[in-house]
Amino acid sequence: MMPKKLRQVLTLNFIAVAALPVLAVGLIALRSLSVSLEEEITEKNYIIAKSIAGDVERFLNEPLNLLEQIRNLKRKGIVSEKELNEYLAGLVTQYPIFNVIRILDQKGIVTHLAPFDENIPGLDMSNQPYYRVARKTGESHWSHTLILSQTRRLALTLTLPLEKEMIVGYLNLSELNRVIDKVKIGDSGYAAIIDSNGTIIAHPDQKFVSERTNVKHLFFAQQSMMGKERTFFYRFMGVEKIGSVAFVPQTHWMVIVTQPIEEAFLPVQRVRNIGWAGMLAAILLAGFIALINLKRVLKPLLRLEKESQRIADGDYTYEPESIPYLEIRNVAHSFKTMIDAIRDRDKELRNSEAKYRQLVESSRILIWSVDSLGRWTYLNENAARRIYGYEPGEMLGKPFTDFMTPEQAKKDWGIFEEIMAGKNQVNYETVHLRKDGTPIMMNFSAIVLRDEQGESLGTTGTAGDITERKRAEEALRESERRLREAQQLAHLGNWHWDIQTGNVEWSDEVYEIFRFDPNQVTPQIDSILTLLPWSEHHSRDQESIQKAFESLEFGSYEQESLRADGSTGFYTVTLQGIYDDDGRLAVIRGTVQDITERKQIEEERLSLERQVQHVQKLESLGVLAGGIAHDFNNLLMGILGNADLAIGILPPYSPARENIREIEKASKRAAELAKQMLAYSGKGRFIIKSIDLNEFVEEMAHLLKVSISKKTMLRYHFAKNLPFFDGDVTQIRQVIMNLITNASEAIGDNSGVITLSTGATHCDRAYLDNINKTMPADLHQLMPEGVYVYLEVRDTGCGMDTKTIEKLFDPFFTTKFMGRGLGLSAVLGIVRGHRGIINVYSEIGKGTTFKVLFPASPSPQNPTADRSEDNAVEEDWRGSGTVLLVDDEELIQHAGKQMLERIGFTVLTASDGEEALRIFQESDGDIDCVLLDLTMPRMSGEECLRELRKIKSDVRIVLSSGYNEQDVVRRFTEKGPAGFIQKPYQTENLRRKMKEIFSQKVEEIS
What we know:
Strand content: 15-25%
Oligomer: single chain
Shape: flat
Radius of gyration: 59 Å
Number of helices: 30
């Protein structure tokens, strides 16, 4: 604990004794005077409020007296009914306080008024609150304040009941401002009047009156509305204020006289300032007197303090002065005796230290000592300044742990405790900190210091700065580490062969690159030779090797080589030769980099690029084929539909019927071609059922047999317990027929065998990816692992080369002299549509194998035995009602309208979606069905369907498109069409579809 200074203690005590009584008396007096003044100010404020309340009361009594005067005149009959309006007009003119005076009969009807308005007499006022209250109580009634609509001024009504009539006066309250304007309270104080609801009705600032400002949330208003009449303190618009409130008895209004507290209590603040100034002056005077007396007492003691400091600095010339106080004089003489003894001993010590200092100060090694608490007691100046950057005086007396990090200090303190415990001389390395914070690596040698009794006094020893040496060692290690890391990251090794000595060195990465075992293989030139284009006949003696190297062209090249573990790797080898002064090759050095992984990645990238390009080509052709087929079907609709209509109206004996039949037959063949193009694009019409492949192939056996050459033998291999798969029966039949037909044509006129096999296999990711590399089915479709049902068609025909296989599934590609080239293209589209894959293997002269795989379904749901479709339609079925036919093709409109009319419907037509919506809305619900094309300008069929559903949710809508049903209907997630019919269609197709639609219940459609 630090000792207190006598001068400070005495000074504080003297001042406290002198100042406290003055301060206490002054505070009591000042407090009493302030309270008295504040009470006087608040009472004055309240008196002003009461005075203004009286003025307001007198202001309100005047109109009350005038209305009572009217009542007395009417009672006495002094003023007749004819003169009453004129009399009232005189009062309104003479007394501006009245805006309007009205007299109501016992039913509340206006009979007289001033100023006169011809629209008012006869007006019923019985629903007015003031009328109801006055009639109920039978006494005069003051209403709440209001803004008159005629004058836009503040007013209130005064109602005075008669025996059978009632007098109502509308008072102009703007006159209240004259009452409060005459009140002046300080510089910014003012008076205001507030009605019983807290709304300001009179204020120096008319904005508060016109805006009907309500202040009932303020503290003084809340208290006053509870019936309290006094002075309050409150905050309004960010200003602390004082406000006195008085009530007006008739209307329960509040009169508030207010001004800012700072202004109101300004006299109090002035008195306080004068009081504080007087107390401060009294305290300063008392303190001054106390300090004069204190200085006389402390002067000799302060001189002794100054002399002691001078003696501590080595100046021992002290003579006591004359001191009036006995006790202090005795202390001064004892101080003189002590100084003389210290001077003698100091002289001896200085001589001894001079000899020791000369010995150690010349040393560049740090010589140091610390006491038992770890504080520096000695440091030779030159070494300390050079190593630490401090002046020795800045370090002495401080713990050595202050000159290192906390972590290092903890370690070094443990070593210090071991030395102090008696351990022999200790050498250790540590880290200290220079003055600028730079770490210093130090090598310390330390022993314990003991006194005559053998007690430990501290430690001493020497120390040297080894920072530069440690940095050099660390830099070397770091450089070697970075080189190793860089070589590991780059898979780069280096080697060096001194031809003269035969010494070979290489980096650690060479072991990893060539899979050498470091325990079995040592650096030797024979191992390096595996990198070079070295002929086997070269001898391996040093002279032959040197000549071989000299014949090489130094530089970089790529080399494929076997590793020690038997695997093959690719490397980039760089060779460089170093020659001696005689021009002879002295040293060969080089690098080897493993680029095997890069080579593999490049090969995979090229393979993937070829695969993606192939799939993108097929998908682009698929999109083109689908678009062409859609437009083709639209055109065929016009041809086939009109041909069908013509057949229906021609007599049986007409010679034109045969020609139209040929048109119909050609159109159907063209429609089949369009279906094949849709199948290639993956948009063929699928009716999905669960299929047993074995049973399905067996049912097709007769058809397959008649489809191949008579010289060709057809063999079957069916797997047992084959799982089912989901597919479209017609499309799968087309796949099998196309594969069998192609196999037969590959055999040609020669004898051969076609083997058709079925089975099931589990396909893992590696197998699926391998198939996709050779024959990808879909760029965006990742085939899932699992069980697949497969159909394999193998022939012994001519086979195909690689180029033919690459173009095998392109549309319109064919190896026949004549042919469309859509068979295998359609097969690919069907397989893609079933989420299946195709694998093709073929060799010239060895035949071809097609393997088609479909994902197996978990369990059969619709056995293939139920593949037949009920196509029967009653030929005499006829519909009734109105159908709206929507199509942008005029040919289709014409043909479709006649077909619908033929089967009994009334037909309206529209060329696009917008026209269809207009006709549907104008029909007022008379349209029973909409036959809607999907692809149209301005508004598509999809948009039109949604808008029609909004108009009438249960309307029957049949979509029509050149695309297949699945491709169209999947766009509609909810409330889709009631049915679909694909173009081109004929009358019987349309009859069948319309019968199906009109047989459904309304709930099923909506």
